[in-house]
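User: Show me a protein chain along with its predicted structure.
Assistant: Here is one chain, sequence first, then structure tokens.
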Amino acid sequence: MKRFVTTLFLLISISVFGNGVGIIDATNGTYLHLAKSDVEVNVESQIAITKATHWLVNTQSSFVNVKYGFPLGEGASAIDLRWRANGQWFQADVNEQPSDTTLPGSGGTIDQGLVSHLGTTPLYFDIPDTVFSGDTLVVELSYVELLPYSFGKVNYLFRNNYTLLQNSNVDRQSFFFTLNSPRSINVIQLQSGHTLSHLTNNGNLAEIGTRDDETAADEDYAIEYELDQNQLGLFGFSTLIPDTTLPDNLGGFFTFIAEPDPTSTATIDKVFTLIIDRSGSMTGDKIVQARNAATFIVNNLNAGDRFNIVDFASNVTAFNSEHVDFNATTQQQALNYIGQINANGGTNISGAFDVAMPQFGAANNSTANIVIFFTDGRANGGISNTQALLAHIQQLQNQTSAEVGIFTFGIGSNVNTQLLTLMASQNGGLSEFLGNDELFSRITEFYLRIRNPVLLNTQISFNPSVISEVYPDPLPNLYKGQQMIVSGRYQTAQPVTVTLSGSAFGQPVSYDYNLNLATTEQTNYSFLTKVWAKSKIEHLLVDYFSLDPNDPQAQIIQDEIIFLSLAYRVISPFTGFSGGTPVGIEDDELVGGQATLSGDFELLGNYPNPFNPTTQIRLKINAAYVGPVKIAIYNTLGQLVRTLTLNVNGPGQYEIEWDGRLANGEIAASGTYVYVVEANNTVLAGRMVLIK
């Protein structure tokens, strides 16, 4: 059986994020009032960490319970959530249950403004505290994402437009964007009309700031920057973290970004098929967008490419019985064919692949063999069972003489996401899910990225062999003007030669790069732990979704995903935010919710960590304080499981042992625990992992 890999790390679509919502009644459209919004973005090359903080006021005449909703888009992973109530900040725990997606309300149809604002992949969190009339709830959410890149241009978008939910003014809207790049930043610009308060660019560090007071939140934040296209190769980031703070003994994390030179690298010819769903549900604007997307692709094929178009409903038809050479004549014939495609009938997906896949029998691995398939419905003709349909497509794939990458696009909410995800991941492609109005823009943008392949069957090696846990695995193909983003682990820090190899035009090709691994902890690269955990979770999800959920192996994979999610605080499909642990006292006007903690006390962490069966919680006193220090230990559900007391006598270092037992004397279960240290009105918190 052929082995393929999804290209999640190579081809990242623009993800749309926006202001969070305090939902009181989703049916009647009753929400907390958005009073202030602060967005802080830190970007290293194309890896962005966004922290969005919202001040939400209860303008109702009585107290309310609130569910927080945030439009977290595709490709991003939430890494932290905090909220402030009654002057106290709390940090949400990562729980071994997915978020509850039930919306509060009186029942019936959900407000369509809320549905549109939150998008297709929202994040939800039940605020544990009641919000009283006139009170302000502050919520801070952080997430990591890989920004879309093409030929040196990078885009960042945060959907600040809140008018679907609120037309009244917002007291303050602030946005601060910081970019660090080893490649020169030729241009950076704010593409939206917000009041620009700050703009600098010294070549490798750029900053943009905006602030608007007493205005409606009616415009998004959009940034575009352009990196020097003469500075290509491999750019790496790494950090070596003490093992005591990690759930394993591989302290090193790295991520590198590699890009081939578009001016000197030849382009590999494509054998290309576009499969178009023309079932009845595609009627109207969707079929118009489909025809326009197909027209765009045909008009942007390369000389030397071979192509075909297959369209399906209950029946299946094709532009030609085989792939044809792209030239002026076949281009016009294909455009005429596209113009007469109309929507009507059922959804026979297996029939479409029965026509499309055998045509690749004449191809070989010296060409890039690509299928783009999009649909807005579920199979109701031919083979409709998901596993049977996947097996059938795999059988068709195995019968071809060449490897064919299948890229799938689901349109709207009535698609079989499992089918499309697995169809792509099992066949060297990418799956994306679009809104009804995004078909043309997303597919044409995607096609331009894969238009010019330069390295097929990509492999990676390291010399010396000190690298492990590398993702994605296997690697995707490389395309002109695009990047490959790779994350991994190391234990021994030393210079490493990275070799990317593969084939072009049937001949072996390789690229050698130097990667220097950090020998100490680099605090500005602490995000690398999140990037690596995110990439490994995505890799494991591909294996999980290829199995029946009741398969014992699926349960093992699910448990590993949950462990990674809890250990690295990266939300997965099987985990969510819940509960909360006090983390400090803060004034309301501190941007981003940074706690003001006295310098009289320092939390030195616990050792060992992870631990089994005991660990020492360590504290440094810098003031003449004499008295008790309370240590409260919470589980991931936010439940208090043990309280310890340490008596201190002035300045010095102190420690107290937790024996891994609960208040009732029972041995605690494996997992993550948070300990909150309270001393003389100061609150500090840390995290520890018990592994048996």
